[in-house]
Amino acid sequence: MAAALLAVLGLALLGAESGSGAGSAISTSISTDGSKTHLTCTLNGSDTEIVGHRWVKGDKVLKEDALPGLKTQYELDTEEGGGQYLCVFLPEVVGKASVNVKGPPKVKAVKKSEHVTEGEGAVLACKSESFPPITEWVWYKVGDTEHQVLTNNSQGKVFVVSTETRTELHILNLDLEADPGQYVCNGSSTEGTGHAVVTLHVRSQLAALWPFLGIVAEVLVLVTVIFIYEKRRKPDEVPDDEDTGSAPLKSSGHHVNDKGKSVRQRNAS
Asked: What is the residue range of the signal peptide feature (predicted)?
């Protein structure tokens, strides 16, 4: 218990030393209550009316309010690890201060998996906002028997770019057989180490054509069905422009014979 209290006191002193108000003095403190860690910023005084407070970590706003007051607090899970937090009294001209929470590195993969076509390049990335910052980044590929450490000279197609908060592994000209697998980024600081895993999937160049080939196949099937239907279709009715003609009228010889017979009878009489 005594060791824990000393550790908390040390963190509080560290936080107090890191306070740096702009125009007004800001004191900071850190306290731990079980699984929660409380960060506090206190403004000693201000001639400007305070209209709110903001807590920031990196480029992410964690909390913001529109309350007055010379004190603001932020609560986080102790297991979240260390980092550099910034408290801001609004408007920003009033003052701001940083609160540094020590802890082992919390390394996160920017993307847990990447899908890239063979022959192209891949970029695998990890980040950490822990405090103190990462002093050394190491990449390696997980193998069946041992891990292969990757450096700028590995295989002639791999290079690493790193800063305190981010590391990137660049792999050129991906091979379908050799390059897929799990890659681990490991970050170390004075407080310990942390790591994250990124899975790389490499697909065949033909895989990108599969959707297009599927569309072409569907079109061909549709055209074939239409063609067969047109060939087998029978007309339902006779077209109007076809003239079947009319049967010729037959002359009756009966009346002609009767007329001739009457003439002959008159002549005989």
From this structure: 1-18
Q: Give the start-to-end residue ranges of the domains of the chain.
A: 26-101, 107-203
| pLDDT greater than 50 at residue 48 | yes
CATH superfamily of 107-203: Immunoglobulins (2.60.40.10)
- Which homologous superfamily is 26-101 in? Immunoglobulins (2.60.40.10)
What is the pLDDT, as a whole number, of residue 133? 93
> What's the pLDDT band for 15 if we cut at 50, 70, 90?
very low
Which pair of tokens denotes residue 80? 């979240």
Would you say the CATH fold of 107-203 matches that of 26-101? yes
Task: Please provide the DSSP assignment of the chain as one string.
Answer: -HHHHHHHHHHHHHHHHH---SSS-EEEEEEEETTEEEEEEEE---SSPP-EEEEEETTEEEEEE----SEEEEEEEGGG--EEEEEEEESTTSEEEEEEE------EESSSEEEEETTS-EEEEEE---SSPP-EEEEEE--SSS-EEE-TTGGGTEEEEE-SSEEEEEE-S--TTTS-EEEEEEEEETTEEEEEEEEEEEE-GGGGGHHHHHHHHHHHHHHHHHHHHHHH---SS--TT-----PPPPPPHHHHHHHHHHHHHHHH-
Q: What tokens does 136 get?
A: 């050394």
- The first and second tokens of residue 135, run together, are 């002093």
Model pLDDT, residue 24: 65
